Amino acid sequence: xxxxxxxxxxxxxxxxxxxxxxxxxxxxxxxxxxxxxxxxxxxxxxxxxxxxxxxxxxxxxxxxxxxxxxxxxxxxxxxxxxxxxxxxxxxxxxxxxxxxxxxxxxx
Length: 107
Prior knowledge:
- The protein is an alpha+beta fold.
- The protein has a domain at 14-82.
- The chain is built from three helices and three strands.
- It has helices at 16-22, 28-52, 60-70, and strands spanning 10-13, 83-90, 102-106.
- It has a three-stranded antiparallel β-sheet, with no helix packed on it.
- Mean pLDDT is 77; it is low at 95-107.
């Protein structure tokens, strides 16, 4: 999916989230397993951070929560109340967009 404007990003109706995730092999069939894996990974990261006293906050669990909302009850009707917006976010502000230090943020 081409993003024509780095400032504006890309936006589609909510049901598009199922197409986007299906391209990543995340469907109603696979979502619950992925949510469980994310939960375990999040717990391990939190335990590691506490053990090492890094003060780092892990937000991996938020992805699991988002997937849980998207795939709740095996239904898709609720998606019509949402919008999928994809934008570019610079992970390292000191680099320019030409250096390709961007990730996709799905809102």
